[in-house]
Amino acid sequence: MNSIDLPSLAQALADSTPTIRHDWTREEAAAIYHAPFADLIFRAQTIHRQSFDANAVQCNQLLNVKTGGCAEDCGYCSQSSHHDTALPASKLMDPAKVIEGAKAARDAGATRYCMGAAWRSPKDRDMAPVIEMVKGVKALGMEACMTLGMLTDDQAKQLADAGLDYYNHNIDTSEGFYSSVVKTRSFGDRLETLEKVQDAGIKVCCGGILGLGEKPTDRVEMLRTLANLPQHPESVPINMLIPIEGTPIAATATPVDPFEFVRTIALARIMMPKSDVRLAAGRTAMSDEMQALCFLAGANSIFIGDTLLTTPNPGDSKDRALFARLGITPRDDLGVHAHGNA
Ligand code: SAM
Ligand code: DTB
Ligand code: SF4
């Protein structure tokens, strides 16, 4: 599929440079979120085209390198030891196995390998194997991302020195709703780790979940917190809750209106014009049409492969078919020469 020429007005808009702001007001952000749908999507798509190829999507592969038994009580999570989810806990994986997985992911088209551990924070003895994982993934020419919970300044520096590109640490929802979702840590704890990561020179991946029982204001405020940080997170994952039996939130949550989900993506794109916005967890429950709307609203990144951390993901054949239907190509962040040469 070849992309068609846009009419000249739209092209002129798409050619201008987006303004990067860190002073969004509550009212401004809410007005964008609640705008007529066509106006919202037109604005988001225009801004999207100022910084990105609208037909390319960045592809990430997740791996849970340490499953379950987590001391935190996040009300949505299958891996918390506070909930009875029937998920067996495991030890930290052997770095060699992790690197094998990364190579397979690279061969399947992922440019970034995202490794998650179900920890409140890493212990000092965990750092050596974790660093070996980062170095191994980097040696394959891929981008490396980790999510290990709260970090000290020294741990952030060690990860930066190992070559870690991104650290994922979500704020998940608004400050006001946070304590209804997690009680074992505060919203401020999350912001503190984000600051340490940024100070160490690692790029930040930070977003949230929809479907926790939050109100539209909580979604707007979550994104406003991110957009008003001194530096926008380079990557903003927007997850749709995957209800997990045995978790308190699965018992009370109500499904999110798909249009509200798309509005949230559009607001992220408009307030953080140069960040990658990821259509993250929850795609198995979404139609192709809903995913297409998310891409139109400015999402430009997904998780590929059959599994996320502990739950299923659409998988490569479904995603290949979706990309073909929409004329989307995987974004080649590694360059053709880095692919398949290690
Ligand atoms: N332990 C790490 C931490 O504290 O950041 C990282 C792992 S955690 C699983 C990463 C993110 O995945 C969460 O912040 C949440 O946004 C998302 N997530 C976890 N469980 C989910 C679920 N059931 N449905 C949708 N998203 C989920
Ligand atoms: C993010 O925002 N979503 C990913 C990643 N960052 C670590 C995790 C999704 C987890 C979905 C539920 C599961 O598989 O356990
Ligand atoms: Fe632990 Fe992360 Fe799950 Fe919270 S989201 S319980 S910190 S693994």
TrEMBL record:
CDD domains xref list = Radical_SAM
Q: Record-annotated residues binding [4Fe-4S] cluster?
A: C70, C74, C77
Can you say what this protein is called? Biotin synthase
The record's annotation in PANTHER family points to: BIOTIN SYNTHASE, BIOTIN SYNTHASE, MITOCHONDRIAL
Q: Which GO terms describe its molecular function?
A: 2 iron, 2 sulfur cluster binding; 4 iron, 4 sulfur cluster binding; biotin synthase activity; iron ion binding
Quaternary structure note: Homodimer.
Which catalytic reaction applies to this protein?
(4R,5S)-dethiobiotin + (sulfur carrier)-SH + 2 reduced [2Fe-2S]-[ferredoxin] + 2 S-adenosyl-L-methionine = (sulfur carrier)-H + biotin + 2 5'-deoxyadenosine + 2 L-methionine + 2 oxidized [2Fe-2S]-[ferredoxin]
Name its species: Rhodopseudomonas pseudopalustris
Task: Tell me the protein family, please.
Answer: Belongs to the radical SAM superfamily. Biotin synthase family.
Per UniProt, [2Fe-2S] cluster binds at C114, C145, C205, R278
What phylogenetic lineage does the species belong to?
A: Bacteria, Pseudomonadati, Pseudomonadota, Alphaproteobacteria, Hyphomicrobiales
Give the Enzyme Commission number: 2.8.1.6
Q: What are the names of the required cofactors?
A: [2Fe-2S] cluster; [4Fe-4S] cluster
What Pfam families does the annotation carry? BATS, Radical_SAM
Pathway where this protein functions: Cofactor biosynthesis; biotin biosynthesis; biotin from 7,8-diaminononanoate: step 2/2
